[in-house]
Specification:
Elements: H1 21-26, E1 34-38, H2 45-54, E2 59-64, H3 69-75, E3 88-91, H4 103-115, H5 120-127, H6 131-139, E4 145-150, H7 152-160, H8 170-185, E5 189-195, H9 203-206, E6 209-218, E7 221-231, E8 240-246, E9 249-252, H10 283-289, E10 297-302, H11 308-324, E11 329-332, H12 339-346, E12 359-364, E13 374-379, E14 385-387, H13 399-408, E15 419-422, H14 437-449, E16 455-461, H15 467-473, E17 474-483, E18 486-493, E19 499-502, E20 514-517
Helix pairs in contact: 4-8, 13-14
Amino acid sequence: MSGPPVGPAPGTSSSAPIVPPEILRFFREPRPRTLTVRGEPGVGKTSFALAALANFSGFRAFVSTTVDRDSLVRQFPWLSDARQPKVELVEFLRFRTPDVDSAIDVSAMRNALQSRASDLVDVASVLSLPPALHQLLAAHANEPKMVAIDSWEAWIGNLLGPSSTAFDVPTTRWELERTILGQILRTQAHVLMVAERSEPSRFDYVADGVVALSASELEERRERWMSIAKLRGTEVESPSYPFTLDRGKFRCLVPQRPPTGPYQVGDEPDPNPTDPSLWPGLAAFAEWFGRIPPMGYSLLETDSETPVLSLWRLAAPALLAALRAGGRVVVRPPGNLTAAGLRQNFIPALSSLESLDRLGVVVPTSAPSSTEGFALGRLNASGELLPWPSETEPPEEGSARRTVLGFLGAPSAAPPRNLVVIFPDAEVDLSQDSHGVDAFLGVPSQARREGSRFGALIVMHSDDPHIEQIRVRSSVHIVARTRRGQLFLFGVRPWTPLLVPSPPTVAPEPPSFGFVPVV
């Protein structure tokens, strides 16, 4: 897997909510920084603010202007967990200055603030800074500090009164907000401001950083995105991240990137070897989509934006698991995966090179001896593809299909662990049958008619002319979509939420991965 590492700041718990690495670096600067997070109601702004605090190494305070402490703990139960980073919760619900009824009064308050001494005690007396927060900041004066204010608009409303809206006194309120923020920063505390809006405002220019959260629907499933609009002084490696809200915890998701070359296959042990269905090689696959039926189609439907090698990484463990179980596998690999790449995929993971005798590789051919556009070969230890079987005479029509069925073996009462995997070729024009796709798709159907038992895992583009036939026949139907360069999966049969491939906490060798639902 590639991509930036994600983890807590030094001195925080490894189980802290996960935020993007850019945010971690942003708040590690010694100079006080300000960050605005905005988005529609319910999108996850409070969860993100608490996550940013939990990953900060130093004193952490969360000022709630709309929800009391007990409600916060009920909504985010990890806040009361002693194993989690401690966040001080400060209520600002019962502190309110007298209503300010005119721009003149607001201006007078601003002038009074500027004429007063700048120490924290005077700021508290003029702006009604919550005494609890004042005491906490004073007690931690000599260590790094971070304060999250949720929400900034309600905070200002508490200070200035409900009549001092942006429509009543736009210029004075704007200047006063800057003054208030400046006074808070004099305590040397980083400040995170939760904004009750999704659209940009001129206050975004004051903040050192701006993050926007959004939620939408992808084929009737929720997707969530965090977009980094700016982070002054911090290099932004990725401008956007999908995220999920897992049991009150914000979790940024860094999906697996597509491999840039041959991928060494890894599989996980089958927990139930006596099950007649086929083990997919990945526990996460089985958890969300089940096992591969031995007498049916499993469809992995993809779009043109998804790199085919990303899907190969998902399907290849099933091939290895079938070989380990003593079965035979016929694979039509992705067109950009060479024979040498296949050898690199499998040989390091297999205990014996004899297993390669049970791996048949379908290759496209335009030779005159082929009437179906494909032929079957086998890998040798050097990574070369050899014909199977060795034929001296041109085959009759249908013999390529018959060769595949013969390789898989005669029908048996005991279901063997045999598997057929079909991948599209990235270079193929889907409207043409120049690479044997049409003919090879008929192999599983003919085998079923003759009583052969094996699973068929088919990877197919949504605009393939055969897709509807496979959709209606599939016992398992998984859809892969790429959004903003990130891979998402979801199950149609069985139904699942949107899933993002994510590496496990401790990766085996070769690496495996799991799936994280977007909720």
